[in-house]
């Protein structure tokens, strides 16, 4: 069963625990700037939204890489960057329509979410359940249920 990150921005408080957990998992330091997940702060609305690689099926980053440094982890389905192969050309960063592949100046390589090998630190660290790791087939279930409620899934009043 493939799993994926499911993000519910309505539950996000902007605590940055996901960013801290990610940077610690990947670099051994608590440094949100090194995180592969980012919490965007929409100042106008006060909303906080965690965002990271969506592990696209078509994975433009993977197809764009001229040295095949991005491969698919068979166990998790994550598109993973092999640092030893990456030449830091940044073609993948340009090809990603979501901006979730990032160049790291210190290493001269790129980084992106790799789902922590199947146990995403961001989901484990999230205290509100805004980030969960769920069956990939059901990531839209809550949205479908919410729409069903909005569009008439309420008890009718018998007249």
From TrEMBL:
Pfam families linked to this entry: Fer4_11, Fer4_6
Cite the entry's keywords alphabetically: 4Fe-4S, Electron transport, Iron, Iron-sulfur, Metal-binding, Transport
- Descriptive protein name: 4Fe-4S dicluster domain-containing protein
Sequence ranges assigned to domain 4Fe-4S ferredoxin-type in this UniProt record: 3-32, 44-75, 77-106, 111-136
Q: Which domain of life is it from?
A: Bacteria
Record-linked InterPro entries: 4Fe4S_Fe-S-bd, 4Fe4S_Fe_S_CS, RnfB_subfamily
């Amino acid at each position: 069963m493939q799993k994926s990150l499911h993000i519910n921005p309505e539950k996000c408080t902007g605590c940055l625990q996901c960013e801290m957990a990610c940077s610690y998992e990947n670099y051994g330091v608590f440094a949100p700037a090194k995180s592969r997940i980012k919490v965007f702060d929409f100042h106008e609305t006060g909303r906080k939204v965690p965002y990271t690689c969506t592990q696209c099926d078509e994975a433009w980053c993977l197809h764009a890489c001229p040295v095949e440094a991005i491969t698919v982890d068979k166990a998790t389905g994550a598109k993973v960057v092999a640092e030893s192969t990456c030449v830091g050309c940044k073609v993948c960063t340009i090809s990603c329509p979501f901006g979730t592949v990032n160049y790291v100046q210190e290493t001269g390589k790129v980084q992106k979410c790799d789902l922590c090998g199947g146990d995403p630190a961001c989901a484990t660290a999230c205290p509100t359940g805004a980030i969960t790791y769920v069956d990939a087939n059901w990531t839209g279930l809550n949205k479908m249920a919410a729409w069903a409620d909005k569009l008439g899934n309420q008890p009718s009043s018998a007249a």
